[in-house]
Amino acid sequence: MKGLVAGEKATLRFLDLPEKIDTEWGVKYTVSILLLSHPGYPSLSSSGMKMQWQTGATVMAKNIVPLLEEQNKEFMKDYKDFTWELEAMDDGSLWLTNAKRVYIVQTSILT
Fold first, then answer.
1. pLDDT band at 99 (very low <50, low <70, confident <90, very high)
2. What is the CA radius of gyration of the chain?
3. Euclidean distance between CA atoms 54 and 10, whole angstroms
């Protein structure tokens, strides 16, 4: 998935669990998503597009992965069932939200 700049939002659904990978830019996570909206994909169909999201964003490492690893029942249901909104804030942070929760994490990597 292309990165977002401040003020942009993307909506997505997670299709599988994130996997930790080593890249030439350090450790990142990769996860299959169904991208439903994104300003960098203006011709995206209404049914979305399956793709990989590879990210070094702290929101994945510090919030999402630990909740998945501890098998938090409420979060596991949210992760699988909800459509998520990823928003790039002016301060460089990413906010990952669904209808129930907000996961706010500082990061300078918007990928």
1. low
2. 13
3. 15
Average pLDDT over residues 70-94: 87
3-state secondary structure the chain: CCCCCCCCEEEEEECCCCEEEEECCEEEEEEEEEEEECCCCCCCCCCCEEEEEEECCHHHHHHHHHHHHCCCHHHHHHHHHCCEEEEECCCCCEEEECCCCEEEECCCCCC
**Cβ contact 63:105 at 8 Å:** yes
pLDDT level of residue 109 (50, 70, 90 thresholds): very low
